[in-house]
Amino acid sequence: MSFRMTGAEREEFLTGVHVGILSIPEPGRGPLTAPIWYGYEPGSDLWCVVGRDSRKGRLLHKDLRVSLCAQTERDPYQYASIEGPVTVIKKANLESEIRPLARRYLGREGGDQYVDSEDHKDSILVCIRPERWLTADYGKW
Known about the structure:
Pnp Oxidase, Chain A; 8 strands; eight-stranded antiparallel sheet; 3 helices; 27% helix; alpha+beta; 141 residues
């Protein structure tokens, strides 16, 4: 029996609200692996917002290949891991990118409080094209 998700299942899973674990190559060290909030719509690039001057922001650049894994924390365990190139890096827009992402993870009120209490002027939008997938859905057992 295969526990792999179908193409439709993996895309649906990745659209869910999960904290993603992003892995970025780092010369002379192991990869930087850090939790992030992300957005995804089936068939599109996955996107996230990071601080331009953060360690993540300094390591990311266009065409760099990165990996991201999203998972459930409870049985039946599921995960979707993607690998692909960074396709876009640009200044993040507060209202069309940062606020919707904060609301996705914290709800409307919590997201607005988060956005309004932090300085996001140095945030960048990073888009990643999923080219390779590794998935499992142990609910198929």
